[in-house]
## 1
Amino acid sequence: MFVVHKWRKHRRLITPVFNANLLDQFFPVFNEKNRILIENLKKELGKTQPFELSDYIRKTNLDIICQTAMGYNLDSQSNNESEFAEALRMSSELDCFRFLRPWFYPDIIFSIYKKLMGLQIIYKKLHKLPNQVIREMKESRAQRKMKNNKNAINTNGGDKKPLKVFLDTLLDLNEAGANFSDDDIRDEVVTMMIGGSETSTITVCFCLLMLAIHPIIQDKVNDEIFEVLGDGDQTITIEDTVKLVYLEQCIRETLRLYPIAPLLLRLLQDDVKIYSDNHTLPKGTICVISPICTHHIPELYPNPWSYNPDNFDAENVNKRHKYSFIAFSGGPRGCLGSKYAMLSMKVLVSTFLRNYSVHTNIKLSDVKLKVDILMRSANGYPITIQQRDRRPTYIKKIRILE
């Protein structure tokens, strides 16, 4: 809220980073990182004691966002936590610390605090890898450009096209006159990784926990996955995700029940009239909007504290105001990465459920919330898993009758 002018400039320039063609070519990354997740989860099969789901999902999402944002294979699922992953975690904790203490909002105050407490080392470690990747990518692009100038003729056209990651697009924009500094580019990439990895992790964990609590809904999701993907192990495409309609309803219902952002802040650029009580909010007012309050209005969502994916079938969505669901924020400052996040989560959840069924002993009423800069489960996401019988529910029922 203190840098509206900078946000306007950067948002306009960064919007092309999330175009559909760019997202489509990320699917090999989504599929490969989820394959590793499925392999790692095998150690939990057959156990009667619940395990903490977020430990696995967090590493998967971090690997995905690192590869798609920077083109760097962090491989945290296979290795011990890297210096970068640890710095990312600690910087997120610092962001939470700052968010809950308004006197640290001004950058100059927080900079003095970081210096006095010796916290710059965290950001130094956080920036080390992105700075290195940016430097190497700029050098590689310069060498490639020189090579192309010397060899204007394309030899055979058979070379595999490299993955074009978010960082590539930012560098393209810079060459086209966007005038980002290297620090600007680094900060945008780090923001994508901090914002993208943890929010998707919490949502996926909540979604799988909800499906474990509601096995009938889980069966319905599994039936849809079977209908779209069959019982083989073929990789998931962007076209497949479009057909996973009920799964998306489950993810959206999860975000309605447990929106990741507890608060949204807006600095009014004009006077805003509130027609319900004939008040006017003057220009310059900082407004606080609560997604969890909006998402639990009974007039919008009957039985608002229950889990009902039918809240997001087409008929019900069309009945409601477009801002009745603001898990991805809304308006000019809506989440730019919402489509990327939804595609990534649909691939992860569908891959998980193709291989494992999820189970838990807890009830919906047992879920307690912890709120800081994000909203998450206070008691984690305890589940057990079993090898999935991929046959749809109606085939299983026929077998039982036989």
## 2
Amino acid sequence: MDIKINIYGVRGSAPISHENYMKFGGNTASLTIRTLENSLIFLDAGTGLKLAETQLDEIADKVFLLISHTHADHIAGFGMSKLSKLNLQKGYEKKKLQIIGPNEIRRSLSKYYDGDIIWPVKFDQSNEQMKTMNGIDYENIIEFSEDNQEIQIDSKTKITLMQGNHPVKHGVVLFKIEMQDLGNIVKIVYATDNEFDHIFNGVVNLEKDKFKSKYIKFVQTADILIAEAQYQKGNYDSMRGFGHSYPEQVIELANKANVKRLIITHHNLMQDDELEIIYQNAIDFAKKLNSNLIVEFAKEGTQIIFEEN
């Protein structure tokens, strides 16, 4: 089986639906990775999850949801998704969804899916008459505990966690997914909502340069780095502290880490023509570095395939 990456949500902060935004797409964070062993990994649960859940049609052996953090643009799609009631889906009757996320992820999801002010049904739904949230393996939710925490999800796939830098209680988690295929390792890193020039006390207790060094080490030689860069270098100072970066910064860091392919995501709510200009500027900046790094902007509907050896 080949490794397949599918992108379904690329916007940051909020979704947008209008023809002037559809070249890149209007949904918030959601993508999938199907592993060599037919494990299906969902990365974040923004509004793009409604499209991403179509991946369930090809029956997976295991299903995982990796949540970077619990700001609304990364979890708003979960409640209405098939993932929350996985065991009610054809072919998944005896399976449950395993969630991996930040420390206190269970409690954080319970605050959003509260059965009251924000959402009509509670995350910890145990009432057999209301099975909306019963497809989750509540007993085996994995929460971030320390940098370089490793989770083996199948015989060929390992996930490594790192604490990122974002103004959200319990922080943001960066995920490195490594799949071994006949001695070759395919390395994919998902690093969203991560700021480098403003350190949030109590989230990342490092100086800026040390945090950047830690990040470079984590993404080192990645085949694909999917990283957010919501702002522009010219307006970054006015947005400092919002927990995001800008293209030139992530390109420089990816280049230092010898990343092969950088896919920039979590786009600001700009129209396609504006975003296209920023995209071209990012490509031009990478060329000035005399880098072999491939730079792209994420688009909904993109599929990337690594063929099995």
## 3
Amino acid sequence: MDERPVVFIDSGVGGLPYCGEFARILPMESIVYVADRENFPYGPKSKKELSDLLAVLVARLVVRMDPKLVVIACNTASVSALADLRAAFPNISIVGTVPAVKPAALSSKTGRIGILATERTISDQYSRHLVERFAPECAVEGIAAPELVEFVENDFIASSRAERESMASNYIERFRALGVDSLVLGCTHFLYLAEEFAKAAGGDMKVFDSRAGVAERAASLLQARGTTGERVLYVTGTRPLEESWHRFAGLFRIGSCLLLDDAR
């Protein structure tokens, strides 16, 4: 038995679907989700900026929470800083989140796959290595969508289904025009529109994400299980918590939503 928490980190609400999938697999694990709104968004930041700020955040969480596992539930942060974080914290298992290139490549019949992500994720050397390793015979089309990150973070809760479907359809049509038949949602924020993307894709394009693989990998690394099932969402920064944070927490059955500065 090990009641220490599993900690998930993202710049905002994007990683919550990954947290939710992990909780579905292991519902009795104690989970802490940290939304690093103080540094949102991660997408425009340099590799060094991300590595440095995440090292500071993880060190803070290690002191306060003594996590048994850390999940970087953000593609941008993972491709930019995962190796540095593992080197800096060798005694903690750290799981990253990277675009699901392999299943997309295996599924593609046209040999053209798409990656919808941040510019940092698309251009990073780590992502290029994923393509070279798992999709060497494929043409890969990347589209950066920072406005979609902002939409999910700031407008999703109040948005209508029609608005969400319009957002998803716009990107699907851009990829369809490029001949893409396998699309990777390479930013955790985009999973909030997974149903809308799948609907817009129809039968001639498949949509992939990595949440199941990341959750299963995290679960496989736990040497001892928890029994409390406690879940807490913390937000960095000093701003008052907006009601939307509590609503996002409620979507994933997280009981408490607090500022990280208030963590004991």
## 4
Amino acid sequence: MRGDGDGWSEGPDGLRHWGKYGAAGLLLRAPLAGGGSAVLLQHRAPWSHQGGTWALPGGAKDSHESSVHAAVREAWEEAGIDPTAVRVRAERVTASALSGWTYTTVVADTDQTLRTSRDRESLELAWVPEDEVTDRPLHPGFAAAWPALRATPARACLSELDDADTVAAALPRTVDLADQGFLWLHSDPDGPGGYARIVADTAATADTADTAESGGAPEAQTGALVRTVSLTVRQILA
């Protein structure tokens, strides 16, 4: 479906980028068995820009669209993703140009690895485990953005909360830590990642460190250094 944003934006340096009003893509994350996560990737058709590489479903923004609307629309058009199954967690401008053009990655979750249907812009669509994304030939723009978009897995420790059930019901999910990146927070005690300490004090801020804890996590009980993060309930439920 063509919109009024389809076309090239050219800057004073002569570089062109697709999307008269900028572009957006959807990084959709879904849970895997065992606490892990997968992201939806598109194997781009040979005729497309950087054809044969893997990237996110996405494309040009129309003049009336927000980045979120454009990214969700593109995922529906190119991958058959039901917009009602998408829960947006964050937006990141992951590329820009002198022309004022920008590419915004919309980070979102869904409850399961949804069935997909490809259009002519895709050779294939795949739910790829997050730790296997870089095993594929990535679109250069996506490859440059991926380190900042990838979510670090973490196991939620809810023992300090009076209402742990409320937080547990919201898991697993992506948690936006702003300039510290993203967490994939889950509740599988045997799953990947260090432990996330959840506190009720909503005035606290996220603080990551390599810490030797005195209890709670099995690794800590053996005196091992555990990658930990402190989160508030507000951060998780935002």
